Amino acid sequence: MTSTRSALITGAARRVGAEIARRLHADYDLLLHARASRNEAEAAAARFNARRAGSARLIGGELADEASRAALCAAVGSAPLDLLVLNASRYGRSDLDATPAARNADLRAFLEVNVVASWDLALRLRPLLAAAARANGDAAIVLILDVYAQRPLPGYEAYSISRAAGAMLVQALARALGPAGIRVNGVAPGTVLWAETPERAETADALTSGTALGRIGSPADVAQAVRYLADAHYVTGSVLPVDGGRGTHI
Ligand SMILES: NC(=O)c1ccc[n+]([C@@H]2O[C@H](COP(=O)([O-])OP(=O)(O)OC[C@H]3O[C@@H](n4cnc5c(N)ncnc54)[C@H](OP(=O)(O)O)[C@@H]3O)[C@@H](O)[C@H]2O)c1
Question: Is residue 49 part of a domain?
Fold first, then answer.
């Protein structure tokens, strides 16, 4: 690793996570987490390393599994960590007519990836973040959430519940980790990239007409917000909507 600051991005191989990595690479050495998309993450790391030698490496891991999360954090190493971007998430529909056991397992699966894993990584990596804060003034955690942290997306009940819990996680950890110089913020995107599964209930027209700006956003809009929060030294406990004016705030 060559530059002074380092960042770990979960789900960094594709889509929004890949754009966040591209945006941060100018100022950070990158630890790129991937689960299934290891080939894409390896290719991205090679591109970053061609631009600046030793500036990126891949870390694999299943976030739903505690042992895998422990291994992931061990693979980060012991050097100070300036920025943790919790971008990976589980997304999908709920079936309220499934068996009680299936419904409960489904909610637990959303909570495990979207809440417990974020809690676990933030707290396991706290010593490295605190070390960066001591060295450089502060360190930051940015949790990528969703406009549906504030109101439910019909048909996606378990996902929405997990996102609302994520918003409280931002506030609770901001309080808890602030004294160590670790700021914790969230980004709540509206639609910035269509889901790859055709299961989305809302139409493209409904999604765009629901915004004040009349259009969807882009992964670059999320990456820009992450970059801002990484250096917003007096901002903590905030969830920044990046939704073209589609949330409940206007
Ligand atoms: N796309 C949008 O318009 C939109 C809107 C609102 C909020 N968001 C939020 O913005 C973030 C990025 O969006 P996106 O559309 O790029 O996300 P995505 O494609 O649905 O998922 C991003 C990555 O998460 C990783 N992931 C999922 N489950 C995992 C698990 N159990 N263990 C480890 N990794 C796991 C996957 O990595 P691998 O491919 O390596 O398995 C995946 O590539 C997400 O938090 C999403 O909820 C996106």
Answer: yes
